[in-house]
Amino acid sequence: MKNKWMKPVTFLLLAGVVGAAGLTVGNTKVAHADSEKGKLFAAAAQVGLEKNTYVIDKKSADVNGDQVEDIVYLVGEKEKAEDIYASHMNLVVQDGKSKAYVKTNIKDLGGYEGELTLVDFTGDKVADAFVKTATGGSGGIYNHVIATFENNKPAVIFGEEENEGIRYEGKFVDGFKVEGKGSKLEKPLTIDVSANKDVYVAAKLYDQAGKIQKGNEETTVYSYPFGALAPIDMDGNGTFELVGEQRIVGINNTDTVSHINSVWGYQGEGKWNPWEVEYSTFLVKHPGEAINTMIQK
Ligand SMILES: [Ca+2]
Ligand SMILES: [Ca+2]
């Protein structure tokens, strides 16, 4: 993930990013009880992948649309089998009928605890592949990719750009407020950040009366890509939507000024539309012991 998402950190928790291996989710079958998971990917040379390509996750479902179950591998490069970070991740499908392999051409997907889910997002009743992997960065961001394999032609329909969700950019203005705009939103969005007054006054962003202090007028406030995104069939018709959460971040990485929650449905031709977008306003925001010390409360 690009460094533009990495605001300076004062203190931080890497909660849940590198914990124990995640549980298997999704309603797809796990073939042969994970016997290949964590092992070198046997077909790596055959599909033109590096020798040190490992199986990160594996699931079975018909993904090419011929009604015969296929095997989908999430693979990635690791230096050692026990490494928890994998780089150059890709999806490889073994056609259940012909046994031939096809793979996606994802260039630089990397992360921790990669996880594969096979459900239909496109509405053709054929499963698509959803990949989730933690970036491990201090922003708490996850990478997500969705690929389809209709007629054994891999296509990525959700990638880095889509993973930015609602792209919000704004700045602090007088009166403990943030003013800005978000992509896909018709109206400007103003966020009340007065719950964080003590910290901002201590940080000399504002004075007690809520006036922006000189030199801070251009402090930007912006959204991070999804910190969580999950396939959920919102209307129960068998086609899955994406339900995501993002943070809008202020003076630094830990200064969450709002959360954006959104629901996205696939509209065809690589386009996703938000069905619902909402944002939160903090009413109380305990600044934490580190900042309490800083402002001598
Ligand atoms: Ca098939
Ligand atoms: Ca589909």
What does this structure look like?
Helices cover 4% and strands 38% of the residues. The strands form two sheets. Strands 1, 2, 3, 4, 5, 6, 7 and 8 form an eight-stranded antiparallel sheet that branches. It folds into two domains: 3-160, no CATH class; 164-294, no CATH class. It is elongated and about 70 Å long. With 297 residues, it is mainly beta. The protein has helices at residues 197-202, 288-294, and strands spanning 53-61, 70-77, 85-94, 101-103, 111-119, 128-134, 142-148, 155-158, 168-173, 177-182, 189-192, 220-223, 228-232, 241-249, 256-268, 271-279. The chain contains two helices and 16 strands. Bound molecules: calcium ion (2 copies). The site of one calcium ion has 6 residues, from loops. This is VCBS repeat-containing protein. Keywords: Signal. InterPro entries: Integrin_alpha_N.
Main attributes of the structure:
297 residues, 2 domains, 2 helices, 16 strands, signal, Integrin_alpha_N, VCBS repeat-containing protein
Write the layout of secondary structure elements.
Elements: E1 53-61, E2 70-77, E3 85-94, E4 101-103, E5 111-119, E6 128-134, E7 142-148, E8 155-158, E9 168-173, E10 177-182, E11 189-192, H1 197-202, E12 220-223, E13 228-232, E14 241-249, E15 256-268, E16 271-279, H2 288-294
Antiparallel strand pairs: 1-2, 2-3, 3-4, 3-5, 5-6, 6-7, 7-8, 9-10, 9-12, 10-11, 12-14, 13-14, 14-15, 15-16
This protein binds calcium ion (2 copies).
